[in-house]
Amino acid sequence: MSFYERHIFFCVNERDEGQMCCNASGGGKMLNYAKDKIKALQADGPGKVRVNKAGCLGRCDKGPVAVVYPEGVWYSFVDEEDIDEIVDSHLIKGEVVERLKV
Amino acid sequence: MSFYERHIFFCVNERDEGQMCCNASGGGKMLNYAKDKIKALQADGPGKVRVNKAGCLGRCDKGPVAVVYPEGVWYSFVDEEDIDEIVDSHLIKGEVVERLKV
């Protein structure tokens, strides 16, 4: 088994002013929200889930995006409710959130 | 199948001056070397391998580190020869480099 049971990477890429990219469309904000939520859920022991920021993931047309490994499932999201569902269903229980897949 | 056949994340975390971390011990430099190498190898078509930078991967004691998904194999490396082996063997051919695993 890998070191982490599940590992999610949020694209937080930034471009020159005026060009949209994952960070400008909410990637960084949602990353922080997910980090705090996972930290609270895993407060009692070593984390099996890791939340990370990443550079440009190369799927700008679907942004903001995050990818969950080892499954290799890609998500796009709008708000904190979407992140709640990705965390609660996929990261914790292993159930893919079909409606947010890209 | 996932969007990329293989996806490697290099920790390029930076700490306050004086504290060692993956970037200070070569993470960023080796990331750039791997990116250039993969770009050259995949010049003729859409890339099946993606090289990304990431924030702190939480394995500072083994740094500098990178993780390859979907396999979830972690590597530590010293120089460009190590990166050549990770790229040529694992990222391109799918053969894990046992000697660099952590």
Automatic annotation (TrEMBL), chains A, B:
Entry cofactors: FMN
Source organism (scientific name): Denitratisoma oestradiolicum
Keywords for this protein: Iron, Iron-sulfur, Metal-binding
Protein name: 2Fe-2S ferredoxin
Pfam families xrefs: 2Fe-2S_thioredx
Lineage: Bacteria, Pseudomonadati, Pseudomonadota, Betaproteobacteria, Nitrosomonadales
GO molecular function term, any single one: iron-sulfur cluster binding
